[in-house]
Amino acid sequence: MSVLNILLADDDSLVRAVVAEEIEEAGHHVRAVRGGLEALAALEEDTFDIVLIDYAMPGMMGAEVARRVREMRPHQAIAILTGYGDLLELSGRAGNLPVIPKGRMDAILKAIVAVAEGEQLPPPSSPQSRWEEIQRRMAATANSQLVGQNLRALYADPVEEPLPHLLEALLGETSEPAPDSAPQAEPPDKLAD
């Protein structure tokens, strides 16, 4: 893979900084600008292997920036880099431009290289498979949050009970028979020292 010279236009300063840093760490050169007018000015000063344009920017939307880039340089590799990737492609609003969804940087970098080399990006996932992915991630997140809450509870305050008893309580396992009526626990500020 050769080193690419990349122009990145994104109005979100945090996204712009993170994406630019990741691109540079992958060994490419990047010039990051805040919006469409700055991108067009940069194209007058330098040449780029690919121009990455955020779709939703104030002042000049990504589609307008792309149209003007095409007027300046008809053969310039251009891609829309956006958080609305699936929606843009499914609605046809991206025109004939490849859309790179914001998300995992390894996938973004792979797509950038593919577009710069003239390859076609795969079509967006269907809404049904996208929904299944969202549900899978939500379930994984819910489980990891529950585990995290339990671990925080274990390590939050010094406890007087032995650790195995706490672990058994958290896991719902016990070697002792359950009492007929469990006593109500006192709030922490009511416990004796």
Concise synopsis of the structure shown:
This protein has 193 residues and is α/β, with parallel strands linked by helices.
**Spatial strand arrangement across the major sheet:** 2-1-3-4-5
Shape: globular
Poorly predicted runs are 88-92, 154-159
CATH topology of the largest domain: Rossmann fold
Structural class, from secondary structure content?
alpha/beta
Q: How many DSSP E strands? A: 5
**Mean pLDDT, as a whole number?**
74
Can you tell me about this structure?
The protein is of the alpha/beta class and 193 residues long. It folds into two domains: 5-116, Response regulator (Rossmann fold); 127-174, no CATH class. The chain has seven helices and five strands; from the N terminus they run E-H-E-H-E-H-E-H-E-H-H-H. It has helices at 13-25, 36-45, 62-72, 85-91, 105-116, 127-156, 163-171; strands spanning 5-9, 29-33, 50-53, 78-82, 99-101. A five-stranded parallel beta sheet has the order 2-1-3-4-5, with helices on both faces. Strand 3 (50-53), helix 3 and strand 4 (78-82) form a beta-alpha-beta unit. Helix 2 runs parallel beside helix 3 (62-72). The longest helix is centred in the last third of the chain and has 30 residues, at 127-156. It is globular and about 50 Å long.
